[in-house]
Structure formats: structure tokens, C-alpha cells
Amino acid sequence: MKWDRNRNANPHARTDMRIVTVRRISQAFFFVLFLWFCAVTRMGAGVTDIRGWPVNWFLQLDPLTAFATVLTTGTLFAGLLWALVTLSFTVLFGRFFCGWVCPFGALHQAMGWVRHRDLSFKEKIRRNQPSPRHGIKFGLLLVFLGMAAGSLADPGRWSSPTTILQSGVLLAALAWVLVGALPHGNGPSPRASEDPVKTAGLLAACLAAGLVLARFPTARGLLQTGLLDPIPFFQRSLNLVILPVLGLGQPAGTAGTRWTHGAWLLGTLFAAAVFLNWHTPRFYCRYVCPLGALLGLLGRKPLWRFSRIAERCTECLRCEAVCDGACAPSRAPILSACTLCSNCLIHCPEEAVTYTAAREEGKSAAGPDLSRRAAVAAVVGGLAAAPVLGLQGLTHRRFPPLVVRPPGSLPERDFLKRCIKCGQCVRICPTGVIQPALWEAGVEGLWTPVLDFRAGSSGCQWNCTACSRICPTAAIRRLSLEEKQGKGPFEGAGPIRIGLAFVDRNRCLPWALDRPCIVCEENCPVSPKAIRTRDGWATIFEMAQGVSAGGDDRLDLPGFSPPGDAAVPENVYLQWEVDGIGRRDPITDWGDGWIRLDGVTAAALEPGPTGPVRVVRALKRPVVDPVRCVGCGICQHECPVRGVPAIRVSAENETRHPDRRLAL
Amino acid sequence: MERRRFLKEGLKYGAGIAALWGLGWSFADFSGPGATDPAEKEIIGPFDWSPDEDPPQVAVAQGTDRGAALAAALAALGGMKRFVGPEDRVFIKVNAAFASPPALGATTHPDLVEGLIRECRLAGARKILVSDNPINDPVSCFRLSGIEGAVRKAGAELFVPGPRDFQKASLPEGRLLRSWPMLTKAFAPATKVINVAPVKHHHRAGASMILKNWYGLLGGPRNVFHQDVHTVIGELAALFRPTLAVLDGVTAMVTNGPTGGSLSDLKDTRTLIVSTDPVAADVLGAALLGMDPDRLPYLALAEAAGAGTRNPDRWRLHRVRAA
Fold first, then answer.
1. Rounded average pLDDT per 10-residue block, chain B, 323 residues
2. Does the distance separating the beta carbons of A478 and B221 come in below 8 Å?
3. Residue A329 vs residues A89, A288, A301, A599: alpha-carbon distances, Å
4. Contact between A661 and B10 using a beta-carbon 8 Å cutoff
5. Where are the domains positioned within chain B?
6. Given B13, B25, B32, which is nearest A478 (Cβ)?
7. 2.60.40, 1.10.10, 3.30.450, 3.40.50: CATH of B43-321
8. Closest to A78 (Cβ–Cβ): which among B6, B30, B224?
9. In chain B, whose CA is at the least distance from the CA of A476?
10. DUF362 domain: from which residue to which, for each copy (chain B) (predicted)?
């Protein structure tokens, strides 16, 4: 059971691989794998395209996503079962994920090393000390879990014996997490173990407060773990900022140039997370990371653990100079902070640190030590946040009309219970039309996917369901092409509509500027087309009286000049009266002050026209059919009016919200 | 000793992990959410509270006092006891669409509400509920229209709809009324339903009387149905079959409907219609507006759906004069 026995057997010539080397290889492997999965997340059938790569694997290994979505939805979507593997190993070994697997952790560890390698021994020790402020991450975890837990107040979660049992167990798990964060009298700032009755009472009070708040009808539970959960954080940063700005791993063609809405914020936060390692090694992991907090709580009493052999320890503090988790190995390793970096094992000259399943009292400490007051405040804060955000009504009557979600997105309330803001849908979208929201969908919708029809290389592609297939949490539910297009068994239900296009007749070329266009109609991908045209006649020149014969079979129209958009007249007519009979003759040629008609010569003008003459243009003007339009926005993307397009999609009529329906 | 302890610990951890997997697996959802929320139950219409009257009984009372006219018309039909019994839970569907005073005729008159409640009480009804899902703010509507006062005075229950009082309901053969949120909390428990509405001009539908009054049982964005208003009124007529229709033409709103807003929009037509056939009531109401009932397409649709008959020859008509 003791991994350091090899060294005892062969203390001088270390020919066998040291545990730290194994750990570094593991970190490098998972880091590269993570980058690789990110890079191949693009449409295509090549080896460097998505093909069968399990590109969501890291997101699925993440138990915070799993736990939080189970709280919000009562289900664990397919691949999220991977989290059970992580959890199982964590129960046995502690926070191995942080020190051995997490790519974000590996990045922080490397950056921390770069910064701190040349510092003095004393300074290194100082920066690796445990601090009560490391409890911040447990507070953040409890806030997020509190937000998610509001969903348990939904009556549907207690509607059958099975769901009652499940929800009961979830509540117990939540309580266990909360109690785990409370002082146990053995952390860095030891306090007496607290009265369990008092704790239970407080828990009950928390719950009651939550239930009262959850009576508010608009928001029961929100998933916000994705804001700080390191896997979605890193995935999002790579997907939305790092790869696009480096031009690496981008899709072929015009879609390869990607735009990112709010890139400044994403980039700043990523840079901040990385450069905080200048202050303290693994700053993010120690202070911020809610996943680390969850794993720390779960792995605070692992089967195998680091412990200190007091008789051997000379308190030289060499271990603390290299300790990755700031877990105080020279006293008693705080197991909720230990990332299993194993540096202490290697650096201890006395072999006073050991990794063992043996239990000796006082040789290691569980930690963490969040004060009860802080823990309760965090949970209640989280519980309250969801209904308070819901008060804005953004998931109800006050919905933001320009938030057009990808096809297959669940109704907004359910969507916000699942989306972890990982940016996978944004990344896989072949056109780049999916963008991370900034504040458009409310603060709770930060970095959730919305369609921006000016950002992509096209609108939402009619024959594509990529975003719905990749979403790791089914916030965008899985769609078949048949269901998306309303074909086959889905004929009755009709296509999935994400919005409706409206023609702005004040900006549309044929409607407002008397010029032919109908690019939108031409590009409408549904069959029969959702954009049809209505014939209209626009008068482009008018003269009160007569028209006279000119030379060269021309008719003189003093003051007329052809519109600048057409060198040759097309669908342009002279509308006039000859012999009291109204007629419309096609104009075949024109110039300043004259026109030429098809087959009508000056000789035909006897006795000459009476009444007004007009030059008229036949125009096809676009009109949208709300039953057929799916809101794909290809029309908006193609509209030649580029700034504020003359045809624009908004979220009316989307199928995911029957109450926003417009077409009968 | 150490080995034994380790085995014991190992078993403990193993059991914990097994429990974790069991729990995790119980939540597993391999196909993900579908198109609709399976948890939401809907109820299926039609909702038929109509009395077994053939031919339909129609009473037309002349007068200016609504209470007296109601009493005379009901007497002509054989009294309220013919329609409401001692065990009945009666739902009175008023038209409280707008927050406007009773004198303007945009809403069901409180005198009529009061009279109906008293008649139902005399007939021994167990419970009497008055409700509507108005267009303007519900509380303001009930208060300003005088309906709230009338309900309290006569001793019934006013049901002000809240967001949780709607449930999806469907007319199976309907095209528009499929899985649509409706004010089920108000009408579903009822054993008898009385539709009581004023005669009003209505720009979109032509006239708003008994059948148009059913709109007030719809929730959701019901105004999308204005695109096809006659079809939806026809479907409403098929979905809701009242025990009695009470159409108030003592005054009729002849212009600027359905809101009115001025006394000059009203005309004294001095007629109150009580009918077991809602279509018949609307045919008579159209005449008060000077309209040809055949120009109201929803009446033909309602008739085709079996909700009543437009043909006066098939009614049993009682004409009375209120004292």
C-alpha cells in the first residue's frame, strides 16, 4: 500500500519511474487530449474532424455538471454517467482529477511553476500555505448548488414513489455536501466541532427558505456552474477565443474566419485565470474552482491518503515548498486540498510522508473549514438568486425577442437548467451563426448560445443538426433531420421553428427603394418556399402630358433619366394611353431624356398619346409565410441591406414556446 | 489486524461506490428530453352541460329592468328549477372583458349577475361560481364592471383567474383548439354552466354575444385566433355547450365595439333573451344590432358543429313582457 517502498528498496539509483513523472505524463496526456478534442470539434469526415471523436468526454467526466443537472432536471443525460467514474476514483483516492487529469489544472500548475521556480525557499513556502480564503471555492460551490436545488421544489419532482426517493436522496446528498463544508475541528484554523443538532436545524431552515422562495412561479432552479466550472471554462475559452484568434483548428472555407461576440470578456477572464498564478500557484484551483471544491468534499476521507509520519518529520518544510494543493503536508495533509501531486513524497528527505490506506489519528486532516454562517449564507443566496433573476420575466412575457436559440433548444426555463456554457454548439456550428450571448438573454444567460445572423458564414443550415447532436447536457435536445424538418413521422408536428422572419418594408429594396432584389426569396431553403413574392408596380417616372417622337425610333421623355441600378431596362414599361386605350409597352432601351419601345416606332404615335405617361417597373416584393418559415435566418444573412437587414428573424413563433406562437 | 481493517474499510467504500452507481444509474436518461413535456396533462372536451331540450326553448322578454325581464323569461321557460338542481355546482360565465363601468354596456350587467345568482340559489344550487378571463386587468375588470359587488351582494363566489388556474384542453375534432390553455379551474368542476353576455358590435367578428363570450375561457396568447376568428368561435361553440344562454339586449352596443366607451354607442333595444340554444340567442341578438345572422359566419359554423340551430322554425319561442 505504500508507494514509496520502491524508494526504500533502492534509495540511491532510482531507475524506476518516479510517481511524479507518471503524474506529469498523465497531465500532459490529458492536456493534449483535451486540446485535440477541441481542435477536431468541427464538421467533416476526416481524422482531424469530429467523426467519432468523443469530444465531450472531459465535460462528461465532470461531476459538477452531473450533480448540478441531476438537481435541476432529475435526470442524468447519457454521457454524463462518466462522472460516476470520476466520483468513484475520488472517493477512493481524493482529488486525483485535479492533479492528474484536469487540463485547466495542468495549465495552472505549469504557469505556477514558471512563476515560482526561482523564488526563494521561504517565499515558496509562504505562497503554499493553506488559507481560510481557500474556502471561497466551497462558498461558490454552495451558491451554485443552492441555485440548482430550487428545482427540487417543483411538485413534479415528488410525484411518484421513485421520484420521491430520488429527490429525497438528492436532498440528503446536498445536505451532506453542506455539512462537509462545515468546520470539523481539524482544518487550517481549528475550531471545535460544531453542534450537529444546531447544524441540522439550520439545514432545515435553509430548506424551508428555499421552498418559500420556490413558490415564486417563474424560476425554480438555475444551472450556473458553467460560469466557473473549469472544464466548461477552459473548453469555452479554447472554442471561442484561443483557437479562433490563433486561426488554429478552424473549419475550412469562409466559416474558418470566426467572430466571437463578447470575446473581450471571455479573453480577459481566461487571461485573469491564467495570470493569477503569478500571485499564487494554482490560484484558480485553490480559491475559485467549484469543481475542485466538490471533489475536495467528496474526497476528504479517501481510502488511500497522504499522511505524515510524525516520528520521522524534522519539519524542514521542503514538502511545503513544492506542495501543489497548499495542503500543509508538514503538519497534517488537508485531504480536501490535496491534489495528489505527490511532490511531498518525492521531496521529503526523511520519507516522513506516506501514501497509505492505514489510519493513524491526526496524521491527516479532512478540511475544509467554511464557517457555518458562510455556508448557510451561500446556500440561501443561491436559492434566492434563481427566483430573483426570474423576477425579470425573461422566460415569460418579457422574453428578449432577439434571443433566437439553436433548433432543438428546450423551452427557456428548461434550457437554463441544462446549459453549461461550454461553447461546444458554437464551435461545431458549420457556419458560426451560433454565438455566445453576453447580456442579451439576461445575466443568467451569459455565454448561452444565440443565433447572430450577421456573424456566421450563413444562417442556420436547413440540413444540419450538429448543435443538437453535440450538446453534452441536452439543453439543445437531440434532433433527427426528419424531426427538424417536420418530415416522415413528424409531418403532423411540422418543422422546428426557431423564430420568424419579418420583412421591414421601409428598408427592403423592392418595397422601399423600387429596385428589384428578392435575394431572400431565392435563398429560402424550405420547400415550398416560406418567402413568396407579390407583384407590384413602381412608377419611376411620370409626365403629365404626352410623349413625342424622337429620332432613331426613340420616344422623347424630357427630364427622364434611367435609375442607376440597371444599364438595360428589365421589366420596365411605358404605361400610357393611345387612342383612349390604356396600354403598357415594354421598354427595350433607355437613356437620358429618351426611351425605346419594343416594336413601337414614332410612326405609330399618330394621332399621339393623350393623358399622363408613366415609366413603371414590375417588381417582385417579398412576403413571409409564417407557417413555413422556420426562422433559419439565411434570408437575413443574405439580405443586401447589411447593417440593419430588411428581413430579420425574431423569436416569435418558435416551436419551443407554444405561447409565443403566431401562426395558426 | 491491519489487513482486516483494510478489508472492512474497502467493503465500506465499495458499498458507497455501488450506491453511487445505483443512484446515478437511476437518473440515467439515454434519449434525452423530447418535444413535449410529458408531465403536462390535458383534458379533452367537449364540455357539455346542455339540458335535454328538444325543441330548444327560447324566451324573449321585453322590458327595461333586467331583473324583472330575467324573472319573466325564466318563468316562461318553466323556472330556473328546470335547469338547476339542489346538488349543482353552477358556473356563471360573465363577460367582464374590460375595466369599464356597467352603464357603458361593455360587460355583463351586474343586475343580471345578481338576478341569476338569486335564481340559482332559489333553485338550491350547492355552489355558484362567477368568473371570466378578461382582456384588461382581471381585478380591475370585476371591480369596475360592478360584477364583484353583485356577486358579493347576492352571495356567490367570484373566481379571479391566476396564472396557475389554466390547464391545456382540446376539442378533439378542432383545428385551432388543440392543447390550448383554458380556465379549467373555473369550469371543469361545474355541473351547470350559464353564459351571460351583453349584445355588442365587434369589428373583427361582426358581433360579440353568447358564442364570442366563450373566448374568455381561453388563456395563452388567444388573440392569435383573431386571424381566423370565425373558425375559433365555431370551435368554442362546439367545445362549450351551456345549460342556459342569457343574452342581454336591454341596451345593445351598436357602434365602437366591443369596448364602447360612450353612451352614444348604445341603443335601447329593451330585450332579454334566455335560451337553451346559444345559437338561437345569437341569431336574435344579431337582429337587435340590425344584422343579418347569415352574415355572421361563426353562427353557421356553430350550427354545423351541432351547437344549436339558426332556424326559428325549430325553436320553441316564448315572448313575454316584463312587468
1. 82 94 94 77 93 93 96 96 95 97 97 97 96 96 97 96 92 94 96 98 95 97 94 98 97 94 95 97 97 95 96 95 83
2. no
3. 22, 21, 15, 101
4. no
5. 43-321
6. B32
7. 3.40.50
8. B30
9. B33
10. 90-286
